């Protein structure tokens, strides 16, 4: 009653054993592909983590620089500006990670929150009545009167260019992991599992437990079984080329490090621009939002928590160097994996599975 290992000679197999063999080849094939994938997956996962750490390090550095700017140059509004600054860098981090947001919305939201503070603490430092309605009016007015000039738009342009490549790379790496995971769990067809049993276990039914498949026979079976997986070859090569393009873009005109370190200067220039145009801004705001209550003298800057100046050059150089090194290592490794899906059958037939150094092997029907 054998379905797969039919042979003229007497056999020690049963139909139940054939079923066990089919379960075994499915399990073994999954384990073999997982073993092949492991190094590649480990490399990608490791670099996703390394890139994230480098991104976060650069973001923290840029955030500290920005906070320090407010502490030193704009003390009257430093405490209240802390939350908008934090939100801006959180939004940037989420954007890089692939969240459904834009750099423009993050930057403009920041300047919307900043304008009421600049207006009430720097341009008109006597204002006491900063009610919710008045603050909201100032936020909305910012969009019409553009108190920060072209600096807010410039910041959007610079960050959008550099963050785009980082965001795309982050998404591409996640996609790579998804592809690898999918190929690991690709189901074997009934024909394939039967062919694998015939190749690996039918000799056992003749008592030939040490004989192994011939190389050519193994390659034919594996190529047939993995036809759908090896079809990924062209797309995988294209994927590697895309990764190469993105890493080059990150290192060239879209340099993430330079853009992030420039946020502080952009915000500083924007605030100075608003201060220089203070009288005109006040006249417009008074017409739109009304005149708020005033008090004599400047507001106290008590309760401001000082931020220590970050050791700029050291932190920045370390993060910058780390990111550049990771890029180079990663793309060098990925380029070596270009033929990963084209050569998967050869790699599975390599090693202990087939007989290479002997003239005796199993051809699917007999020992040759």
Automatic annotation (TrEMBL):
Give the membrane topology.
Lipid-anchor; GPI-anchor
Stored InterPro entries? Glypican, Glypican_CS
Q: Which UniProt keywords apply?
A: Cell membrane, Glycoprotein, GPI-anchor, Heparan sulfate, Lipoprotein, Membrane, Proteoglycan, Signal
Q: Which Pfam families match?
A: Glypican
The record's subcellular locations are: Cell membrane
**For this chain's UniProt record, which GO biological process terms are given?**
cell migration; positive regulation of canonical Wnt signaling pathway; regulation of protein localization to membrane
Taking the first listed entry, what is the main subcellular location of this protein, grouped into a coarse class? membrane
Gene Ontology cellular component list: cell surface; extracellular region; plasma membrane; side of membrane
Please give the superkingdom of this protein's source.
Answer: Eukaryota
Q: Which family does it belong to?
A: Belongs to the glypican family.
Q: What biological function has been recorded for the protein in this entry?
A: Cell surface proteoglycan.
Specify the protein name. GPC5 protein
Annotated gene: Gpc5_1
